[in-house]
Structures are given as C-alpha cells and as structure tokens.
Amino acid sequence: MTTWTTLTRRFTTVVLVTLLAAVASACGSSDASSSAAPTPLASIKQYHQIPQEPLGPATQHIAQATEGGTWSYASPAKGKLTLLYFGYTSCPDICPTTMADLAVALRTLPHAIADKIWVQFVSTDPHRDTPARLRAWIHHYSPTFHAGRAPIEQVIAAARTYGIGISKPKVTEHDYQVTHGAEVIALDRHGAMVGYFSALTGAKVYAAALPTLVKDYA
C-alpha cells in the first residue's frame, strides 16, 4: 500500500514499505438496480481482497466528532459495512477527492444498500483537526459520513494494524508535514480488514463493488 505525504509548501508522494506480507489482487441510481446481479469483486481491479485471514481488528478507540461518544475499530456499527480512511482536513487533493467520490457513489446506490454503509474518517492530524473542524469538513461531503480523532500515537498503531504507514506530523520553520493513507479500507462486522480500494479508485468503481461487499460483510 502507499502512504501520501503533504507539505504546506509542496506536495510529495512517499511510498512506504507495506505492512502486508501479501495481498491478492482479487482482483444504479434507481431501486430497480438493486435487483441486478452484483458485480463480482474479482472483476474489479481497483479492489484488492485480503487473502485467507483478514487483518485486525485494531484495538484502539477514537472520539467521534460527528455524533459524540467513542467509536471502536473492533466494534463497528452493526449490520453495516465500514469503509475506513485515514486522512486529514487540510489535505489539498487525495483526501477530499476520496470523500467526494464515496459520497457520489453512495448517492447512486439504492437506499437499501447505501443505508448499510458506514464511512469512517480518522484524522492523522488531530492537533489541527478539532471536532468542530472535522464535523464541518466531513459533512461537506455527506451528512451521513462520520469522522473522529485520537492521540496520534493511537492513530499510528491502528493504521499499522491495517497495513497503513502513518507518521507523526513534523513541524519545521517552513513546513507542516502530515502523512495519510491513500486506500479506502473495507472492514467486516468484526472490524477486520477484508480488502481495500486502491488510491483514487473513483465513484463508478465504488458503486459497482459496494453492493457485493455489503452482501458479504454487512
């Protein structure tokens, strides 16, 4: 997997050594589409199924900015597929594009499917991403999306469980450097990672894959 690093004065892409030993590339806008056969995941090259045993769950908790209280990786919302993303609100491109694409994808799905999807954003810049800022930012994309924060050490540990390399933000005289994930992680009902979407997968691909993921893991 990849981790992206953004600086306030320049944007660079940093490819980190993946924490996964191996991943197998398993790689409708109307209710009528719900009766169509789901797209086989093996035909979607941007989605990668985790071979054999899923990763996780992470044992940490985060403080939810959107609805208050706490959220646990190991106890996600019952009856829902969780899509997890590690990012930050000041990200100029990858994070907002990913959230926008997910929002478009969910709007094109039948309500019965979209209602079974929980999008969870976890800040990798908790110092600047206050609860108010997280709420305003995530709800710009969808009022149904969720966002939270935790001490950065806990975020790093949780991300590592799912094969995402996150580093503590680095502050210098001229730069504020933050790392974030690039992939959207699919969690099963127990908080284990069953697969992930490649960076910048796009709304159409999300919409094609999500009905099958909901059927299998919600």
TrEMBL record:
Keywords: Signal. InterPro entries: SCO1/SenC, Thioredoxin-like_sf. PANTHER family: ELECTRON TRANSPORT PROTIN SCO1/SENC FAMILY MEMBER (PTHR12151), LINALOOL DEHYDRATASE_ISOMERASE DOMAIN-CONTAINING PROTEIN (PTHR12151:SF25). It comes from the Bacteria. Pfam families: SCO1-SenC (PF02630). Coiled coil: none annotated. Belongs to the SCO1/2 family. This is SCO family protein. The lineage of its organism: Bacteria, Bacillati, Actinomycetota, Actinomycetes, Propionibacteriales. Residues 1-26 form the signal peptide.
